[in-house]
Structure formats: structure tokens, C-alpha cells
Amino acid sequence: MTTNNAILLYLQILKKKMNKNIFFLLAFFLVNTNIYSQKGTIRGFVSDKNSGEPIMFCNVTIDGTSFGSQTDLNGMYNLSQIPSGDHKIVVTFVGYEKYTKNISINNGEILNLNIELNTSTVKIDEIEISADRLEMKTDVKAASIKITTQDLELVPTIGGEADLAQYMQIVPGVIFTGDQGGQLYIRGGSPVQNKVILDGMTIYSPFHSIGLFSVFDSDIIKATDVYTGGFSAEYGGRVSSIMDIKTKDGNKKRIQGKLSSNTFGSKLLLEGPLKRNSGASFIFSGKNSYLDKTSKLIYNYSMPYSYTDLYGKMTFSSNNGSKANFFGFNFQDNVNYQGISDLQWNSEGIGSDFLLIPGNSNVLIEGNIAYSKYHITLNEKSSPLRESSIAGGSMGFDFTSFQQNGKIKYGFDVYSFLTKFKTFNSANAIIEQDENTSEFSAYLNYQYNSDRFIFEPGFRLQKYNLETSPEPRVGIKYIVSDIFRIKLASGIYSQNIISTVSDRDVVNLFYGFLTSPSDLPLNEEGNEYKHKIQKARHIIIGGEYDINLKMDVQVEGYIKDFTQLTNINREMISNYDNEFIIERGLAKGIDFLLKYKNKKLYLWTVYSLAVIERLDEGNRYFPHFDRRHNVNFVSSYTFGNNNSWVADARWNLGSGFPFTQTQGYYENIPFNDGINTDYTSQNGELDVIYGELNQGRLPYYHRLDLSISKSFKFSQNTILEISASVTNAYNRENIFYFNRIEHERVNQLPMLSSGGLSFKF
């Protein structure tokens, strides 16, 4: 498909979905991005010569000029508005040899130049600037953290395997409520308000029930962009945060892999070319846990958790950099307290995405289509079966037009899904919903870069079944000097999906989904609510300061105003009561991040101050994840011959979570015989008289994790690694919750030691 045809098809779809004014506004931008200057364009991909894997964030410049670019996640660079004539291309990146090439370009010419870099044998000196710092000078990056495979390895590993779940716990503004629960709360938003995307597919349950592990294999992750708020118009459908995970392509040059085993589980990774010199490759990863069996033998502590994670991907690439991916996944989780409860969930999906580089156009075309499904059941001895599922398909197209001083990105998404849900509240009143719904969205985002300013305005239109939500966004960065930058981001956000878990719940492994109901209860004044969906407004302001070439500090203040939140009515006692309640929420705080990195030592220090509130019809309360103070200190030290030893440490300190205090107890007598019940001899069950919601505070939480590893390198591609780790090294008894009926304190995980062995080939 030519670029013109793609744009025409895009406009036809938009015209049917959007009102006239917005359609013509967006059409104006679409048409204008297809009109080019007479100056030339140089573009292409930078990759590793040994593996064919794209190299992200390397510098591509034209010698002796101000023209330059950084490669993106696909390894692509684009230099626009280049004057005709002879030029010299220079490509540099840490750990690779410098690349130069003389080229000649004519007016109106689009020159495709793909580049392969050789790894460097020269020792890295002290003046290297990280790719992350270079990106901070070319992007707004407000409320944003980029995580690579190398970053994941800097946090203490569990059994020698790095994991995204462990790294997410040190991200500024992220609160982790328990070792046994696996849920993350990002700057005042609950888990359902965080959107997790894997290669364009929505992942509904990204973390296993034991909070130490995610469903993702860290070795297949190319990069993860975490937006804790204020994200651009490119993303939508959630009111709090975005986690966008991109997996790497398989090795295009040779078969390679990794086999590992530890006290928690085992893993197999395999990748390579489908056919030599074809540009086609595959990658496969499988993880399996046997923690439910080993915990009884090794730790004398029963942890009834087990899981299996499978992911596969095939990539087909052309000579000019265009490519298509086909992928699929299956994640399973099981928590079995024998004789008490059995919780199981399964998440699966298939999809495809593509990157199209038209030969005669400066517009980059990306697209994706995917289907994913999530199903969870909870079978408790004392309650009826609870179950929930969500299944749906999505399709989207993105267009990027590169400019000399920035880029214009625009696109649309279509998402349709079915939710089925059935549960019971504490009064055994049934709560049930079967709903088929769809969402359509279109966005336009413009980024302008000058010597001092990065300006990124955007607009997103979210059309739900219940209403249409116009959502302006903006991001600004002012480069005060070479070492100091100020940034700001703001926007309006919405979502249609809600969770079965309430912000009041402390422990709830049953995590189901449903759509926003059309029949909302009336507000305090007896009137209908203005919106049928959940809404929020964000504002972020911060600064970045480079102390020296090895150390930098970032400070961000934020406000998230959740103007409308929909939750299940946990106090519903009959079918005549409202099934849902409407709340407001406010999260405000400051995040402080200090980073230091040299050839051997890495330090990461985070302090977060936050206040999170919810307002239910005039009743103000603090949700159970309102942690006022949170500190993370991470260090990684490389030492020994050939830097074969690595020691990692992480210490976390957090103030106590809110909880509802107990005022007293009473005997709840069942009047099975009505007025004839003899209450003087009838025995009832002990019940609790609760105090005001979440007015108490649990003690402070703190935990130290340690790990050390030793690698043995037999050849360039053959490496054996032995590791040992300790979770909760000084065996701190951190409280999780209190069982009021049994009058029993339930603690988080005790000290857990682990060992692991991995073999790369």
C-alpha cells in the first residue's frame, strides 16, 4: 500500500467516526505531512553486526553541521531537510566502534542507509554520557522512566533472574503493597487505572499473585517505557499510567539461547534465524515455577503459588528496514490454599504488528492487530464460585512524519471487548454483568525541538459507547543550560474499564474486570453525574540537573485529580441497592531521584512523598495504598578479573499503610427460627465492630535484598553464571494485615535465600 492510499483509507475511517470540525482539522495535518521540502532526507537503521538486533539511542550526525538524530526503539534514525551535496555520516554509541561514511544527496532525494556497528575492543573511558541522559535533552520525559534489559540486571535478582516486577518497585511514585498480592499503585492510581501494553497487546494481569515475579521474561524485553502520569496523546484508555513494553527481535545471524534454574523455577530462552540470510528470525521464552513444592522443602514455609509463562515471536524484515512481527503468549497463575480456596487465572493472546518504510515518502507507517483474553476464577469453601473474564480485539495505525526540528505523529485505534463477571459481596448479594462494548480513538501529537525548547502539544479523542471524551495534552521542556532543564506536562484522561477490587480492599487476589455501567447512581444533590466514564486531570512539573558526567538528580511534583471514579458498592445488601458508587480522588506528591554511574558502581536513590485521598459522597478516606513516605536505595558493584563478579543490594523503607481499627466485637446470632429463636441458648459467630474507615496506620515497612553472581566466560557467546540471593536479608517481620476474627497477625514474606544457575550459548 502506498502512503497516499494509506492516508486516504485512514481519512475515510475517521470521517465516519468523528464530527466534522475535528475531522477536517486532523485531515489538514494529515495532508500537510505528505508535502515535502525540496531538501533531502537520510534515514535508515542501525544494528549490531553480530546479532542483527537494532541499537537504540545511538547518535547519528552529519559531520561539521548541526544535523543529528538518535535512533529509536527500532534502531531507526531520520535526518530531514539536508542540503544537497556531499556529506559525512558519523555514528557513535557506547561499546561500539565509531562509524563514518561519505555520502552524496540531491534535492528531494530520500537516501536509505542501513548501518551495522562492530563491538568495540577499546576500554570505555570516564567521559561517556549515557543514552538516557542524551534522551533527556531531546525529549520532554516528564513522569517517564525508560527501562532496558541492562537496567533490570542492576536490581537484586531472585534466584539469578532479573524481573520487571522487582524493578518497578524502585520507580519513583510506585507503591508496592505486599509481597503476596502482586499489585502496583502508581502515583495514586489503582492497578486497573494502569495500562500495560506488550507489543501493542493489552495485558490485564502483568504480575503473578506472589509479588516477586512478572509474567514477562526480562531477556526478551528490548525496552519498557513507564509513564507515571502526564503521558502524551499517543496513549489513552487509562486515567493514571502507561507501561509500554517492547520485545526484541530474535537473533538474525545465529542460534542462541539461555537455560536457567533456581529454587523458585526454571526458564528456557531460544532465538535465531528462521533461514540464514533471510532477514527472518524467531524468539521463544518459557518460564515455569515450582515454588509451591520447593518452599515446603527449603524454607519450611508454605507458599502455594505456581505459574507458567510462554511467549513466542517471529520477525520478517526487508532490506529497507520494513518488517512484520507475529507473536503470541499464554500466562497462567495458580494459588491453592488446600481446603480453603483455589484461585486460578489465565491470560492469552495473539497479534501482529508491522513497520512500513515507503520508498518515496517521509512518513513512517506502523500498525498492529491483536486479540487477548483474561479469565479468573476463585473457589472458596465458604462462598459461591466467583469468576470474571474479558476478551477483545484491537487494531491501530500510527503515522510519523519527520521534520527538521521535530516530528508529527498521528493515528487511530479501534478496540472491542466482552466482559463477563459474577461475584458476591459480604452479604452474599450477587453482582453480575455481561457487557459487549467498543472504543474508538484518534490522536495527533506534535513535537518541536529548538536549542532551548521542546514543545509537545497533542490532542486525543476517545469515543466510548457511553460518551465521547476530548482530551488535550501538552508537554514542555525548557533547557536552561547544558546541565539544567525544567519540564512540565498536563492533560485530561479517561477510561471505560473498572475493577472488581475496591480501593478499600487490603487483600484481594480475585482481580476481575467489567465496563463502566450506564445506570449510575444519582449524586449528592439528587442529579445525574456529568460523565458516565472515569475521568482524571494530571499536572506534572519538575527539573533535571546534571551534577557531573556521572551523577544527575531529578525532582518532580505532581497532582492527579481523579474527577470521577466508579467502584463496586461493597455495602450492597439487596438487589434494590445501587451496584456501584461514584467517588472522587486526589493524589499529590513529590518524587526525588538521584543516580550515579561509573564503570564499576551504580547507585540509585529514590524518595517519594505522597498524599492520596478518596471522597465518597462527602466522606473522605485514605485508600489502603496511601504510603506517605517511601525510600529506595539500590546499588550494583562490578569487580574481579574481567568484571566477572556482580553484587547488588536494595533497601526499601516505607511508612505504614492505613487500616480500619477495631472498636469491638459482638455475637452475630442467626435467627433461623425467626421470632421463635432462643437467643439465650443459641450460639452465634463472632463479628467485628469496625472503627472509622482507614484512620489507623500500620508500622513502618523495611526490607533488605541482596544478590551476588559470578560468571565464567568460555567464549564470546558461551557464558555460565552462578548466583545467590537473599530476600528480606535481616528477616524483618513486616505486617501484611491482621486477621481480626482469629486474632492473628499475618506477616509478609520471611527471609528467603535462593541460588541459581544459568547457561548462555
Derived from helix and strand composition plus strand pairing, the structural class reads mainly beta
Instruction: Please state the oligomeric state of the protein chains shown.
Output: single chain
Distance between the termini: 40 Å
Per DSSP, what share of the residues sits in E-state strands of 2 or more residues?
A: over 45%
- How would you describe the shape? globular
What do we call the CATH homologous superfamily of the largest domain?
TonB-dependent receptor, beta-barrel domain
Number of helices: 6
CATH second-level architecture of the largest domain: Beta Barrel
Rounded mean pLDDT is: 86
Main β-sheet description: 22 strands, antiparallel, barrel
Number of domains: 2
Total beta strands: 46
As residue ranges, the low-confidence spans are 21-37, 123-128
* Rg value: 27 Å
Question: What is the level 1 CATH name of the largest domain?
Answer: Mainly Beta
Helix content: under 10%
Briefly note the CATH topology name of the largest domain: Maltoporin, Chain A
Please give a structural write-up.
The chain is mainly beta and 761 residues long. It folds into 2 domains: 3-128, Carboxypeptidase-like, regulatory domain (Immunoglobulin-like, Sandwich); 144-521 and 531-660 and 695-760, Beta Barrel (Maltoporin, Chain A), CATH 2.40.170. The chain contains 6 helices and 46 strands. A hairpin with a 6-residue loop joins strand 17 and strand 18 (280-289). Helix 1 (3-17) runs antiparallel to helix 2. Mean pLDDT is 86; it is low at 21-37 and 123-128.
